[in-house]
Specification:
Layout lengths: L4 E3 L4 H8 L4 E4 L5 H6 L7 E4 L9 E4 L2 E5 L4 H6 L1 H6 L1 H8 L4 H6 L2 H7 L6 H8 L2 E4 L3 E3 H4 E3 L2 E2 L7 E7 L3 E8 L6 E10 L2 E7 L6 E2 L1 H9 L24 H16 L1
Parallel strand pairs: 1-3, 2-3
Antiparallel strand pairs: 4-5, 5-10, 6-7, 6-10, 8-9, 11-12, 12-13, 13-14
């Protein structure tokens, strides 16, 4: 691994100033960035570690919202009694990410900022209609995810927290790759303040909503409402884990299981 400068600020303002330097890269849990650096795929001149900022951690439930700090780990979300009571599907999703080591290092903000096409948290954010808060603005989940490893974040902008509306109902199911535990296909469904939402991860170049499934569930929230539903394989991914057609076939099946 190449040499780099390292900073561990204790405030959001200090982190933003450090991140503005040429060649600097923000690091949260490091579960993706450090692996990329070891492989020579990323070579930042400086790392700005967000782990020392207490304001970026914690969970608060109030006024129909679950607000989670960006540096809160997957394990903390999955184990939270407040999240389990307010949005059980979100706690279930967090508790299934990777393995125990990953869950105790990986963070909500890091996952969303990285926007891996098979990551779980983007499906929860989009499937619940979350709002991503940064040090500069608030971004609706519908506007946040732009494509393969691409988000609406500008250079140096950092996620501070994410607000999830508490839904009437929600469910999550994924068909995972057994080694990495990333989603070959994962589907998050919800019925809440923003209506019915169905978000899919692992199937394409990034997380997306399944409009036909949403329309069916808006008329009848039941697994049977998805019987015979289909999703186009156009623009879906094909790899050694499954073809685009296989992924397309999985989406309504997993959506029905999530509804159940």
């Amino acid at each position: 691994m190449q040499a780099f400068d390292y900073a561990k600020p204790t405030t959001v303002g200090d982190a933003a100033r450090a991140a503005a330097a040429d060649g600097a890269k923000l690091i949260a849990g490091g579960q993706s960035l450090l692996a990329s650096m070891k492989l020579g795929l990323a070579a930042p001149e400086a790392l700005v570690d967000l782990g020392g900022i207490a304001d970026l951690q914690g969970i608060r439930v109030a006024d129909g919202m679950v607000r989670i700090g960006a540096m809160t780990t997957h394990a903390a979300v999955g184990d939270s009694a407040e999240v389990q009571a307010a949005i059980p599907a979100l706690a279930e999703l967090a508790g299934q990410i990777g393995d125990r080591q990953v869950r105790h290092r990986g963070t909500l903000g890091g996952s969303l900022a990285n926007n891996d096409p098979a990551a779980c948290y983007p499906a929860a954010a989009l499937g619940l209609g979350a709002t991503i808060h940064t040090d500069q603005r608030d971004i609706a989940a519908d506007d946040f995810f732009l494509g393969l490893y691409e988000t609406a974040l500008t250079e140096g902008e950092l996620i501070t927290a994410v607000s999830f509306p508490v839904p009437k109902r929600a469910g999550w199911r994924k068909f995972k790759q057994p080694a990495s535990r990333f989603s070959i296909v994962g589907v998050f469904v919800s019925q809440g303040p923003q209506g019915v939402r169905v978000a899919v991860t692992g199937a394409g170049a990034g997380v997306f909503r399944a409009a036909e499934l949403e329309a069916r569930l808006a008329k009848d929230w039941s697994a049977s409402a998805l019987a015979g539903a289909s999703v186009s394989a156009d623009d879906l991914s094909s790899d050694l884990h499954g073809s685009a057609e296989y992924r397309a076939a999985l989406i309504p099946v997993l959506a029905a299981r999530a509804v159940s």
